[in-house]
Amino acid sequence: MPATIKDVARAAGVSVATVSRAMNGHSNVLPDTRERILAVARELRFTPSGAARSLIMRRTETVGALLPDLHGEYFSELIRGIDQAARARGLHLLVSGSHGDAGEAAAALRAMAGRVDGVLIMAPQADADALLEHLAPNLPTVLLNSPGSAAHGGTLAGGLPSFAIDNVDGGRRMTAHLAAQGRRRIAFIGGPAANHEAQARRQGYREALTALPRPQAPIEYAGDFTEAAGRAVGQQIAAMAAARRPDAVFAANDMMAIGCLVALAEAGIAVPGEVALGGFDDIPIARYVTPPLSTVHVPIAELGAAALAALADAVEAGAGDDADALATDAPRVLPPAPRQVLPVTLVARRSSGDPAPDPVPQTRRASRRASPPKT
């Protein structure tokens, strides 16, 4: 039979409570006593029960991440950043996707109850305050690219740390870049109507058109962030007479831009010769399509890592560990927490007609050297 904590206590000549404190790193155990207990535990090959430790410490060493989807390069990069940061802090990761549905998001959060020490929430199509009603009181929580309470009049989300990217600035940058290439009919492919990131990118697009020396009227197409949506818009554009056709397209994410690129290529429309093209996110595949896609670089993995680090800090600080606080049904009342907005960078590649070197972070330059030479 495997050794138990009682066996270790008996062999070390101490109480079970002292063994527990020594194994869990408490400071109120004498160094000599701790060493004796650990030596006995090794000799008996005693392995503490994870479940028992969780009950004693009120910690699972696991954090949750609720994302709108788990499919595609964007979320693969985001999960990579979150997971690497979690492992660096000795934490396990429990991931769930909501598929953009508020009901599924709420159900996923309820399922995480008691299983995680904290949670990251990325719900760009939902009101963060409504989702937080499904969390245990005082559970450490960090918002990621989610609507803040300032935009919704809520009171709960305003007390939580949040991380986001500057979507409006990214929309402005790409639109201004396309205009600088001499494009005079710049179209925009939007994302889901309820997605606040898509709305912000469209806002940046409209602001940039208005700010041009010769302001342009917006030309907007509906999209849903999928490659299929971008391809459908590309087919619409390809079917138009050349005189009426947009001479540039800015898609609100790279997947739609790539779908549009495929449709234009199938129709024999030259990119960027006849239609310049730009996306948003800078997913890894963007540099490998033909022509390589101009886009707005989002530090995807870094965003996930920064949010996880903030969550781990909250967990380690003891937020949520107080039994009385956890047992209460009182509303969450938290002091205002900072909202960190990460900057974005324009990455000019051949799809927009700009031969300038790509302003990509140093960590990505090595992979770009392996790209096919420009022709």
Q: Which quaternary structure do these chains form?
A: single chain
Global Rg: 26 Å
- CATH topology tier name of the largest domain: Rossmann fold
Low-confidence stretches: 149-156, 319-336, 356-375
Distance, first to last CA: 70 Å
CATH architecture of the largest domain: 3-Layer(aba) Sandwich
| Count of domain modules | 3
What's the number of extended β-strand segments?
Answer: 12
Q: What is the CATH domain class of the largest domain?
A: Alpha Beta
Strand residues, percent: 5-15%
Largest sheet: 6 strands, parallel
Q: Pairing-aware structural class of the strands and helices?
A: alpha/beta
- CATH H-level superfamily of the largest domain: Response regulator
Give the strand line-up of the largest sheet: 2-1-3-4-5-11
Helix proportion: 40-55%
**Overall shape:** elongated
User: Kindly state the mean pLDDT as a whole number?
Assistant: 81
User: Would you list the SSEs in sequence order as H and E?
Assistant: HHHHEHEHEHEEHEHEHEHEEHHEEH
How many helical stretches? 14
